[in-house]
Design a protein that fits this description.
heterodimer; A: mainly beta; two-stranded antiparallel ribbon; 3 strands; 0% helix; extended; B: two-stranded parallel sheet; 35% helix
Amino acid sequence: MNLLTPGEPAPEFELNDLHGNLVRLSDFRGRQPIVLYFLRGFL
Amino acid sequence: MRDDYEKFKQRGAEILAIGPNNEFAFQQYWRNENIPCIGLPDPEHRVAVKYRQQVNLFKLGRMPLVCIIDKDGRIRYAHYSASMADIPENKILLDVIDQLIASSN
């Protein structure tokens, strides 16, 4: 499976935040840069 | 990340942290560690798979991944960690954001 590389469009997604609000990547389009941290998980 | 969050905000960037834990574990961790950024539980790994987050060799968990996405929705930086401890320094990420800001002016 190919890894994502700079220049590619970021895959769209939506997830609920910790307050139950739906957050879509496209919510930030045209507004601000995003740092996406994919965590390894915590115990 | 917690300590440098303001530096990202000052540059107009937002941080989204996506993880495999469920909402309850996320809430506990965010509260205990006083984490300021947006937490997004992804227990079904839907987004992790979309972004090709790697699973480590012994299936003990997912390897860290950091991406920076510009205002147009394009990936400008991607770091797939080679180990659990291999996480880019905030300075590297802040420099990428500074370059994005400079190139859009």
